[in-house]
Every structure is written in structure tokens, then in C-alpha cells.
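batch_manifest entry 22 of 60
target: Zinc finger MYM-type protein 1-like
source organism: Aphis craccivora
requested by: lab member K.T.
priority: normal
notes from requester: please return C-alpha cells only, no post-processing; we will run our own comparison against the previous entry in this batch. if the run fails, retry once and flag.
--- input ---
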Amino acid sequence: MYLINEKLENLLSEYQLWTKKWEEISDDLNKLNAIKTLEKCDKQFFPLIYNLLKILATLPVSTASAERPFSTLKRLKTYLRNTISQERLTGLTLLNIYRDIIVDPLLIVNKLTQHRKRLNLLV
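--- output ---
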């Protein structure tokens, strides 16, 4: 409990010094964002503020990245594809989400021929 109180006191004193520093700076504060502020923060003098700004700069602004797979799944699972198996639907969804990854058909055929001995494909 003592360690938490000490950290809190350190953070409060750092915050007071931080606000004094920004009162003296004549930059337009409306143009600053978390990353620009992080660049201007001195890690030696304000280690706790620096860590808090680093966390703030890495937090997602929205939940779009979490909702993207669901909207993709909704588009893929149309009336015609209702009978698709779950494994194939998952594969199609991943292909749609990660469009920037180039899929080499030759590698896929080679991988399939390794797993199934009866499959004799000439490539």
C-alpha cells in the first residue's frame, strides 16, 4: 500500500511540473496530439508522464478493427452461401480480411500433395 501511495505522489508531483512546463510553452496546444506530445516529453524528467503518454498514443481510437471481421462475415454469408461448411466460411472470411497477403497457388498445391498421398498432381 505504501508503494502505491508513493507512486501516486510521484505522479502528482510530475503532473504539477508537467503543467508548469506547458504553461510556459507558447506553442498552439490545439495542434498537439498524443504522439507529438510524447515526442516533446523528456523521458528523464517525466518518466511516469512519458509512460502514460505512450499508453495513450497506442490506444485504439475506435473499435473498427474489432468490428471488421463481423461485418466481413455478414457480407460473405449471403443467402447462396448458407450451406457452406464452417471451415470454408472461416477460410473465405480470412481471405477477405487479409486481402493484402498474396496467396501463391503453387505453394497451396504442393502443401495439399504432401498431406494426401493419393493425390498425384503435376505442377
